[in-house]
Design a protein that fits this description.
Elements lengths: L7 H14 L4 H10 L7 H10 L5 H16 L3 H10 L4 H9 L3 H14 L5 H10 L4 H7 L1
Length: about 140
C-alpha cells in the first residue's frame, strides 16, 4: 500500500486489526493513527466506530491495565491511577477497576518488594515504595 492514500474504511480496518491484537484505549489508537500518518479527519469517526463495535471499551481496558500493573509490575494504586488518568480515561472506570484489585495479591507484592530491598535504609525503602505507587499508610503498615 505504499505511495497511495488509504480510504477511511482501510484506516478503520487497520485500527480494528491493531485493537484485535491486544487491549488498547482511545489514546493508544489516536497515537497509532498519528504514527501511521492517517489524515486528521479520520481520527474521530474511527474512534467512534471502534467504541460502537466494542473494539474499544474503557472499563475493560482499565481492568486489564490494573491487573497487569499489579500482577506483572507490582505497582501501587497511586501510580496505576496516575497512568490511567494520563490516558484520559473516565474517572468512574478508573475507580471501579482500582476497587477490583485483589488485596491479597496487592499486599503480597508490597511485602515482596520490602523483602527484596531489606538492605536499603528506611528512607531509601520508603522513597522506592512511594515511587512504585504505594501510599505512605500502606508502606508504614508493612515496612
Amino acid at each position: 500500500m505504499a505511495n497511495r492514500e488509504l480510504s477511511k474504511a482501510e484506516w478503520l480496518d487497520k485500527a480494528e486489526a491493531y485493537c484485535a491484537r491486544a487491549e488498547h484505549c482511545a489514546a493508544d489508537v489516536r497515537r497509532k493513527l498519528y504514527e501511521w500518518q492517517a489524515p486528521a479527519d479520520v481520527f474521530e469517526p474511527i474512534e467512534q466506530s471502534l467504541y460502537a463495535r466494542d473494539f474499544l471499551n474503557d472499563a475493560r481496558f482499565c481492568r486489564a491495565y490494573v491487573h497487569d500493573k499489579v500482577v506483572y509490575q507490582s505497582w501501587g494504586r497511586v501510580k496505576i491511577q496516575a497512568g490511567l488518568r494520563a490516558l484520559q480515561l473516565p474517572e468512574s472506570s478508573i475507580r471501579i477497576a482500582i476497587d477490583e484489585i485483589d488485596e491479597n495479591q496487592y499486599f503480597s507484592n508490597l511485602q515482596n518488594l520490602i523483602r527484596q530491598r531489606k538492605s536499603d535504609s528506611q528512607d531509601k525503602l520508603l522513597r522506592f515504595l512511594l515511587q512504585r505507587g504505594f501510599t505512605y499508610d500502606e508502606v508504614k503498615k508493612y515496612a
